Amino acid sequence: MERTYAAQVRGADAIKVSGFVENIRNKRTMAFIVLKDITGKVQVTVEKGENPALDEAVDRITLDSVITVTGKAVENEYVKLGGVEVLAREIVIESLAAPLPIDREERKGHERSSIDQRIDYRWIDLRTDRNQMMFKVQTALVRAMRDFLLERGFLEIHTPKLIGAASESGADVFEVQYFDRKAYLAQSPQFYKQMAMASGLERIFEVGPVFRAEKSFTNKHTTEFSGFDLEFSYIESFRDVMKLEEELLTYALGRVKDAFGKELEEVFGQPLTVPTTPFPVVRLADLYAELEREFGYAVPESEKGDLTTEAERLSYDWVKKKYGHEFLFVTDYDAEKRAFYHMRKDGVPQGYDLIWRGVEITTGAQREHRYEQLKAQADEKGLTEDVKFYLEFFKYGCPPHGGFGLGIDRLTMLLLGLTIKEAMFIFRGPNRLNP
User: Fold this and answer.
1) Sheet containing 175-178: which strands, arranged edge to edge?
2) CA dist 176 to 6, 230, 284, Å?
3) Dihedral through CA 177, CA 183, CA 185, CA 190, nearest 10?
4) What is the distance between the alpha carbons of residues 229 and 362, in angstroms, rounded to a whole number?
5) C-alpha distance from residue 64 to each of 23, 27, 93, 104 (Å)
6) Is the CB of residue 167 less than 8 Å from the CB of residue 189?
7) What pLDDT does residue 386 have?
8) Cα 328 from Cα 245, distance rounded (Å)
């Protein structure tokens, strides 16, 4: 007999369901089991005293045990779980669970275990409705972004994560032993995305792991995350890149709201507002002037070439008040604070940061595709030898291009109002390398 998922259980003379035991009420004459799988829950009812093997199985079952039940599914208006119950004929205990070492959720007489305790037993923590809903939402978000790009002629590629030279700046990378020499875990697919442009692929994206050797202890940083990166050719300005990103996010968030809007608010208490386009845009210097005027927030001149964390946070209050929007593009950063491969115009990097709900989610730009200018900018930052292999990509012709990257985990965090530790399948940080 084929397995039936909980959400698909309807009246039937013979049915088989499998899952975790979420709850059990074992009375003298009856037992009621709530069986949970990835689609939902179903009530299993056992009439005791008719089948000794069935009674024995019920008495052995513990919470979170995995069982398979065969029986008859009947409609019952008094059953809260979909108005249907499975009258068990046989129960097979696939796996008997020991007492759980954590409290996944707050319950009477017990506080919820801390996030670090729950990560120690992440596979148990992930069994909750809330966590499983998070990954359904994340899957829908990534699928929507993929669909958006595929419909516009983008190709999906997969770049190497073991690289021979430290990417971008040479800092904050993990060094590994690669046979008889050193290698590094890729801090970004940036160089290879641009190689794809020099290859004539024109429009590419990638979903893959990204590694950052940053000793950051915040609610939004992690040493390994899943990146969603793209690059495309024949742009005229970095504003073409901004336009694509705002359209991508608007489309994807719209799809997520259509699929999960009501559940998001019920489960996470976080309403999802699909943004309107175009997104508001402000120059960095103008934003600092606005934040000082509106909130009395001022930073030293030496810090005004980049956006501080506090300015990011305040920018959300400002953009909501001024534009009624959750997203904000910030442009015109100092060249000193931007990567050497950003194109410059009159000394100003042709790129941007995108801030959502007070947190940076993207640094995007038009790239410098002309070999001599790119080499000069690498020389200026003392990186020429480190990026020698990368500079080769531009010697033999390369179209103008630009792109950006998004962190899937950070998007999930902001979408659902979580911390980064909660928003990832398994968190990695300076003090966390297990499970």
Assistant:
1) 162-163, 181-185, 175-178
2) 46, 27, 38
3) 180
4) 10
5) 8, 19, 11, 12
6) no
7) 85
8) 12
CA 288 to chain centre: 30
What are the residue ranges of CATH 3.30.930.10 in the chain? 129-423
Task: Indicate the pairing of strand 224-233 with strand 401-407.
Answer: antiparallel
Residue 187 near residue 212, CB atoms below 8 Å:
yes
Q: How many CB atoms lie within 10 A of CB 227?
A: 19
**pLDDT-based confidence at 121, cuts 50/70/90?**
very high
* Cross-strand pairs, 156: 205
Peptide bond into 209 cis (omega under 30): no
Predicted confidence at residue 214, as pLDDT, reads 87
Which of 125, 127, 193 has its CA nearest to residue 156?
193
DSSP code of residue 273? P
Type of residue at 431:
N
Q: 183: which residues sit within 8 A by CB, 6+ positions away? A: 162, 163, 164, 175, 176, 177
Q: What is the mean pLDDT of residues 255-272?
A: 95
CATH topology of domain 6-95: OB fold (Dihydrolipoamide Acetyltransferase, E2P) (2.40.50)
From CA 142, how far away is CA 134, in angstroms rounded? 12
Q: How many CB atoms lie within 10 A of CB 5?
A: 14
Predicted pLDDT at 169: 52
Q: In the chain, which segments carry CATH 2.40.50.140?
A: 6-95
52 near 9, Cβ under 8 Å? no
H or E element that contains 155: strand 155-156
260 φψ region: left (φ > 0), alpha (ψ -120 to 50), beta (else): alpha
The residue count for the chain:
435
The fold of the 129-423 domain, in CATH, is BirA Bifunctional Protein; domain 2 (3.30.930)
pLDDT of res. 171: 58
> pLDDT digit string (tens) for 289-316?
999 999 999 999 999 999 999 999 999 9
**What is the rounded CA–CA span in Å between residue 272 and residue 426?**
25
Contacts for 419 with CB less than 8 Å, ≥ 6 apart:
115, 219, 220, 413
Q: pLDDT tens, 365-394?
A: 999 999 999 999 999 999 998 899 999 999
306 alpha carbon, distance to own chain's centre: 25
Task: Render pLDDT for 225-247 as a digit per residue (tens, 0 to 9).
Answer: 999 999 999 999 999 999 999 99
Q: What is the largest CA-CA distance in the chain?
A: 86
The yes-or-no verdict on residue 170 having pLDDT over 70 is no
Q: What is the mean pLDDT of the chain?
A: 95
